[in-house]
């Protein structure tokens, strides 16, 4: 980092050419339209106020203040009237922001005496806040006061997303992330306008969300065992008995209050939480904890932390199944999904449906059809991994998340059952895949070698599934599976900078995307991530500075 803590001698100053204008604003993701005025920049005044105008402006204004106060040391009061010197105005209301893009669009104008963010919605204004943050010097990310010139170049930006879903998935089942680590992960992703947090809450190795006993409990299941027993397990060894990752998998679970706090914090960051209960495979943690689920047709395994079937050199999947022939299965699933639905304000419930390798096709269809019906009856839109594309699916109300395999089946679900699609192709969005040969651990199965930044950037979600229109694509999602990744520092190390590529794939119009330009903009972000304390892998493809 040339810009990180070095001092320039007088000789060097004599040798330097005249200051060049910054070639790039370094915005990530690249906005729809940016006009640089070349005029006098905006300079934060010691008495700058953040002026919140209109319903819903308060939260994004406070968010901005939260970013700016620690590093600038300014008071930056959020007010609703009285602009004072060099104000930053956050104006939310009908008619603001780019027409036709009300949900998340914004306009941002920076000039000598004022910055104005205009949006029709709080989420649109928050997107403008995230852009403004990147227009300040990188030191704005510091959590202690820095003496810097707090200026913003004179620009006019009009911006809105290409896709409504720009997600990150955190596998908290294989290795747990306590609430504060999830918040740290949210902080890092939200600055790039990621707006969905998919929590993979259950898998073979652990069950991470508290479920209470219902009043009506015909099989007498003790739901407290889910977290009592399987909150205390995690992914630890592979099939060969070798330690997965550099440490033991982290155990733990979220209480309902913890989960609600994650939902609240995500919302403050413009992110909707999508909970996943993975079924009918990937259910060993439930089978391990709940005796009533262990019937003749179920496929349990005694130790959730251990693998039995080698999988892609990283772990093991596909060895467990719920029993399609047992009434307890449906009683259990209905109860769990009802409680998850009640806890979740967002419109989606993810039921997994992937890699049910020990479930017969008939049993799979029977169970998944029942689970999608249950989800619909709870008033939620069901999401499942693409294996479930061949099941009935509620007409016009299902979402298929593609990761690998049969694209034709996804196109058919769109055509005959009106499904929408989230794209998480393993080669383009899976972050536990190595991004560089120097990365010590990581899969290579998705790309037949490292899945570098280029693979995460150079693909088009609009044409990925042949035969469907772009309007059937909800968006894109980066997936952090957790077989060997431990703690948020490692999660960030694998996620960044590739999540930034996914953020731009989901946000920026295809015609404005260019990998060379992206790498130039990204080269500046290394310092920004470093100052804020976000871990990232310094991929060789970028001239970090
Ligand atoms: C496949 S991707 C899985 C996960 C694993 C991942 C990486 C998907 C829907 N299922 O259970 O963690 O590969 O090994």
Overview of this protein structure:
One of its GO terms (molecular function) is beta-N-acetylhexosaminidase activity. Its EC number is 3.2.1.52. It comes from Streptosporangium album. Helix content is 30%, strand content 16%. It has helices at 10-15, 58-72, 122-135, 179-190, 224-230, 256-268, 284-289, 327-343, 361-377, 407-417, 426-429, 453-457, 487-495, 498-507, 515-532, and strands spanning 33-36, 42-43, 50-53, 78-79, 88-92, 106-111, 114-119, 151-152, 155-159, 165-171, 196-200, 202-203, 206-207, 272-279, 348-352, 381-385, 398-402, 420-423, 473-480. The termini are close together. The strands form 4 sheets. An 8-stranded parallel β-barrel has the order 10-11-14-15-16-17-18-19, surrounded by 7 helices. The longest helix has 18 residues, at 515-532. The chain is built from 15 helices and 19 strands. The protein has 545 residues and is an alpha/beta fold. The protein folds into 2 domains: 33-159, 2-Layer Sandwich (Chitobiase, domain 2), CATH 3.30.379.10; 165-532, Glycosidases (TIM Barrel), CATH 3.20.20.80. It binds ligand TNX. Residues 311-312, 314-315, 317, 354-355, 385, 403, 481, 483 line the site of ligand TNX.
